Fold:
Amino acid sequence: MDTPHKPHFIRPCTFIWLALMLLTGSTYAIGEAGLGGLAIMLIVLGTAALKVQMVANYFMGLRRTRWLWRGIVLGWLLLVTGLITIAYLTTVK
Amino acid sequence: MINNTSTSHEIHATPPGDLAIWFFIFAELLAFGVFFVAYAFARAHNVALFDESQQHLNRTSGAINTLVLITSSYFMVRAVAAIKQGLSRECARWIAAAIGMGGVFLVIKLFEFHAKFSAGISLSTNTFYMFYLSLTIFHFMHVILGMVILAAVMLKARGGGYSAENHTGVETGASYWHMVDLLWIILFPLVYVIH
Amino acid sequence: MQYKSQAVAKPYFIAAIGLFVGQILFGLIMGYQYVVGDFLFPAIPFNVARMVHTNLLIVWILFGFMGAAYYLIPEEAETELFSPKLAWIMFWIFLVAGALTIVGYLAVPYATLAKMTGNDILATMGREFLEQPLPTKVGIVIVALAFLFNISMTVLKGRKTSISLVLLLGLWGLAIFFLFSFYNPSNLVMDKYFWWWTVHLWVEGVWELILGAMLAFVLIKITGVDREVIEKWLYIIIAMTLITGIIGTGHHYFWIGTPEYWQWFGSVFSALEPIPFFMMTVFAFNMVNRRRREHPNKAATLWALGTSVMAFLGAGVWGFLHTLSPVNFYTHGTQITAAHGHLSFYGAYAMVNLTMISYAMPMLRGRSANSGSAQIMEMWSFWLMTVSMVFITLFLTAAGILQIWLQRMGTTPLGFMAAQDQVMLFYWLREITGFVFLIGLVLYIWSFFCKKGTAQAAA
Amino acid sequence: MSETFTKSMARNIFYGGAVFFFLLFLALTFDTVQSVPKRSHSEGVTDSVIRGKHIWETRDCIGCHTLLGEGAYFAPELGNVYKRRGGEFIKAWIRAQPTGAPGRRQMPQFNLTDQQLDDLVNFLKWTSEINTTRNWPPNIEG
Structure:
């Protein structure tokens, strides 16, 4: 069942890892800068959502499964981040 | 899609690993998800308290821990890739590295907890700390559980218990470990950064 | 019936049904006292009737569990019971102890009973559901240990299937968590905290393992579906049960003086408690749809499916209704709790025992299924009891909502008794429905004596 | 790769999950046990309160009443009865039972001594002072 496997200088999962590290850095920088407010909150939460999708699809390997499984994780993510956003919006006048 | 962590491009009917672990993963996602949302709404009721208390968290250690867990997760991806090529020893080494990073996470977290507890902070201090401690201790226990699972997988891999054809166990452990990482990826910005 | 020693299950089942009848009769007395307050006073005050009602429930369900274990374990382990004689001795001890306890409740004032039975040495009495005198509590422990010894030895010498392991685990848990009934701290908050370790960790913890194992056993027998499939789903379902149910204990720690974080832990985890019940429903219907044989015992199939649905409704849906702490703030300690209690106990534990009895009793009487007419009668009793219990629940829910509205909401709340007077109509309806339930139960018992006629030959 | 869903993995998740969540429960219990004395003013649990609790138990009061919402739902909540009625009323009420009003719910006569009545009232007084979340019950009627 092994297909011949082409050597690459850097594996795709390594790119994902680097991206995740950088995105974490950006979130940290925002935190250190003490930034707040709706726009910042959406950026930070969006970054987290993007990272979750990267982990789910590339690390967990859901991108090679039926949509059902990706859908469950994506649905969960949208629901949770959506409700968090709604909760945040109720505090912004 | 260039893909060298797997041996094929086919679409699988079920996610990697034993389907049973996925029931567990989904249950955990649900429990944490509800807790995250509860945090957000509790915060909405008491923004000032949450924003003030959040200032006292150690954001740097939280961020470092995020990097640690992501890296640990990455090592597990490499472990799965290794066993798919039948490299048991290499697989076991990657898992050991992943467990090691889990250990680093625990140590950093313990320093953080120690600082909070010695400042007299407990679950009953206020609503923010109730959530902060509940969520992070709950997650902390998941890291320990994940490390136990990975240790079992590592021992079996070292003993040559997995092969290129039969490596469901490695994928099962990896899936659980990725979930632990995934939860922290939301937890960190939610509790430490967003205000 | 494949093993001779399985026959000891029969007296346990008969005793269970007998005590069930007693439970219902006392339930009707209490229901009537709800509408005509001084009925049978002072001969049987309400608290005595309630004690008898709830204790009989516990005892008959324990009889049912033990009977189920004595029937199921030899067949699963593929060996005769370790000691049928011990099982018989324990049967009589448990029955006599149970009967004496009930007589004690009815014959002497509770305070006198407490004095007579050494409650001053170790005070354990007078707490809800754990009202039994000290000797009875000790007796329960002894019977439980002898019983566990008996079935554990049977499993050890025979085949170890997942079903029997899960059943054993549930029964051992039952015995272990009962030990908390001996712990009665003088601080009421601590008392209540650990009281739930018996009560909650029984009904929303280890009992569900027993329930799952019994249901899985019957499903294997009547559907012929591969054991591997049924057993792995059993594990997943009970895993979900404990994952949600253990921390779910927190929904009892909202208002009894325990720290506030239980509001969150209790709400979050107990909100997930319906999931395993839902999975159980899906699982039961799935297995029956995928059946590989047509078992002649249609009534047992109906009971098995009914259990999965009613457990979901009673424990899952009615539990969820009032488990979130902002809701529970208003519903705690009202008729809503009573409504949930009735449907969940009937739907989960009464029905799973009746399922087991429905499947095993014909076997114990030497046939694989009862005659068609007996089965039809049994199915009538199923519908009568189940539908009337649903209505009892609905009436109590209505009473509870009205009670909350009058007594706990608004600026001029009514006092407790004034509010009770306002919901009297629903108590009447509940009592009438209770009689329908009794008719169903009589019909159920009658079905055992229905002429054998065309009974199916033994398998 | 064919579908993998094994019984042994399901079993592991059952055992692992059960142990994991029980440990979490123990951790929370530990914290609760630490904080109950303060929330319940346990220094107020005098000998009299302990005797009162014993009276409460041996008369099976829980068979009709609720106490902090737990018990039977046939008679009023007593967790806050001290605040609702006061000690003297409670004693007079218990002495006056049963009312004998036809068709009404009846409470038995327990023939308690003055000392026992005082103990019971002290128990109910201490209970009414337990720091319950959001000061449950919702109002004085219980």
Residues 1-39 of chain D form one domain. Chain D touches chain B at residues 1, 3-6, 9-10, 12-13, 16-17, 20, 23-24, 27, 31, 35 (CB under 8 Å).
